[in-house]
Amino acid sequence: MIFLKLGGSLITEKSQTETARLEVIDRLAAEIQDVRRENPELTLLLGHGSGSFGHHAAAKFGTHLGASTTEDWKGVAAVWKAANKLHRFVMDSLLAAGLPVISFPPSASALAQDGELISLAIQPIQQALSKGLIPVTHGDVVFDETRGATIASTEAIFSYLTETIKPTRILLTGLSPGVYNRSGKILPSITQAEFAELFFADDEPLDVTGGMKTKVKYALAFSKKLPGAEVRILSGEVPGHLREILLGSPKGTLITY
Q1: Looking at residue 114, what is its pLDDT?
Q2: Nearest-angstrom CA–CA distance, 63 and 70
Q3: pLDDT tens digit sequence for 6-23
Q4: Which tens digits make up the pLDDT trace of 163-176?
């Protein structure tokens, strides 16, 4: 059972508003399908980031901080529209590659409290997995009992799902080939004890869900919650790398608690 995230930095041009890297998305979809052909028993749950779609809209309206006014709620709708637009590109590509995917947008069933997910419809996802389908979720706007609204990252969704669905591998792909140390070298592994010594120079203010530092925090939490699971941060930018990773190649940075 693999949870695979296709990062927003990988599938969009993050510096250009609502610009999808369609050729990259198509290539990633083809690589996933190649692996499925080689290993028909492979069970996948996919998620993807929002990149230059949802993040731009959320930063403009401050949706991750909450919503209360009429303008705020217009912003919530704008973030939903942007995130859904990218999701449609991803779903169309996955379907065109022949993958049996089905969409599970968090905005339709999730609820948060002060920025933390407290509920999400899991049973339909479990049913999809049991029928051989590939559930696809994504970073999305969700209603929040405290703030009115907030943004749920793909990592936050994965975190909630791991309470019930226990993946053996969690793979978080992006542009970066892994996590860098202060000397600019990719670390082969990171532990909780080493986290405080890391320097995250590549965090982007536009990323309303926290950038690489937050991604590593989630990865460490995954590793703690799922003893024995393989948790990696890696790149899907080089053609063929995602296929190799799904088949077991130890690329990127291994995260262990």
Answers
A1: 96
A2: 12
A3: 999 999 998 889 999 999
A4: 999 999 999 999 98
Q: Identify the CATH number of the domain in which residue 163 sits.
A: 3.40.1160.10
Q: How far apart are CA 32 and CA 242, in angstroms?
A: 8
Across residues 18-39, what is the average pLDDT? 96
Query: What Å distances lie between residue 176 and 95, 102, 173, 210, 211, CA to CA?
Result: 26, 28, 8, 15, 12
Domain that holds residue 183: 2-51+84-110+119-140+152-256
Q: Which of 105, 101, 158 is nearest to 133 (CA)?
A: 101
Q: Name the domain count of the chain.
A: 1
Does this model's pTM top 0.90?
Answer: yes
Residue 66 falls inside a structural domain: no
| CA-angle at 48, arms to 45 and 52, nearest 5° | 175
Average pLDDT over residues 102-125: 97
